[in-house]
Amino acid sequence: MTAQLLSIGTAVPSAALSQRATRDFFREQPAVDRLTARLIGAAFDQSAIDTRYSVIGSIGEGGSRFTDDEQHLRTPSTGERNALYRAEAPPLSLAAARDALDRADRDPSDVTHVVTASCTGFFAPGPDYLLVTQLGIPTTAERYHIGFMGCAAGFPALRTAARICAAQPGAVVLVVCTELCSLHIRSSRDPEQIVASAVFGDGAGAAIVASDERPASGPFFDIGAFTTNITSEGAEDMDWTIGDHGFEMRLTAQVPRIIGREIDGVVTRMLGDGVDPLTSVDAWGVHPGGRSVLDQVQSGLGLPDAAMTPSRDVLREYGNMSSATILFILQRILADDSLPDGARVAGLCFGPGLTVETVALTRNAPAAA
User: Fold this and answer.
1) Which of 16, 20, 151, 266 is deepest in the core (most CB within 10 A)?
2) What count of Cα atoms within 13 Å lies in the side-chain half-sphere of residue 93?
3) Domains (ranges, CATH) in the chain?
4) Cβ atoms of 121 and 80 closer than 8 Å
5) pLDDT 10s digits, 271-303
6) Bridge-partner residues for 355, per DSSP?
7) How far is C-alpha 116 from the geometric centre of its chain's CA atoms?
8) Is the peptide bond before 125 cis (omega within 30 degrees of 0)?
9) Residue 334 in this model has a pLDDT that exceeds 90
10) Interatomic CA distance for residues 312 and 294, integer angstroms
């Protein structure tokens, strides 16, 4: 029994962040010295990001919920930040879910299971519950939440949906990944926190996964095998903890190096020994943890520039939206009609640990084509 990813929907907050204006805002904060200002400039200017989106407003342009009258960044408590997550995560989740349902031409009443993922806030009953009650999904739908797995959680969420579909013929699973990373920004002299402030944004991605269903219109993905890999080091280089003034990301400069060193072995386990990734994969969906992560994946696998275009484009236009980001990338690959019927797609995500999640997908034309 196979599972199909029928559609992907996305949503972002209304406030767009100019990377240049946000950079200048952080450089002008009161506690920033000359060295810190240089670090901020380098992190923002080398990020390969033009725009991000945020639920806290337009940082650096006078419209942020986390600034005072003098445009200084406040330090809200974790409770204040989480209260904003509780207010803003549900509508963003609903918007992405509606988009995915519309693209799949499915009604909420068709959904049998809901899987959500997030690492940037918590409350109960959570977004999974509100998706059911506010979308009109049957109240008998089973719900699962994948919490605090970081940027890599999109693939465990899809894996859960695929396993459900394999076990329960006729299942229709709504997957929603929603992250409000901007809730946890702070002014800091710490290089790791500066990098986090330079790359993370907000967004939601949703997918409809069904069992053995070939849609009559629109391309779809056949979902193949998943793998999970824990690198030989990295537990202290990428982690995510809860502090008194928001969640605290540690993302050291060693992360790209570790990924670059181990990515060949990860892809070999994904594709099989002796399989050439250059000839056996038609499209790559790589989570853009940052520009340097994409650079290391590309060089480690010897991929051409075109293979990284969907990932680099999403990074440039949205930044790193944690678990939602990979769905934005796969949406572009799904919509790429230049790919042949049966195109083989390799997906790679990176999360705390350091963990690498992968999935093999096949892009197919609809049954009526």
Assistant:
1) 151
2) 29
3) 220-364 (3.40.47.10)
4) no
5) 999 899 999 999 999 999 999 999 999 999 999
6) 230, 351
7) 12
8) yes
9) yes
10) 8
